[in-house]
Amino acid sequence: MPQLPLATKKVLTLDAAKQIAAAAHEEARKNHWAMAISIVDDGAHLLYLERMDGAQIASVIVAQDKAATAVRFKRPTKALEEAVAGGRFVVMKLAGATPIEGGLPIVVEGEVIGGIGVSGATGPQDGQVAAAGLAVLKAMA
Question: Against a cut of 0.70, is the pTM above it?
Answer without folding.
Answer: yes
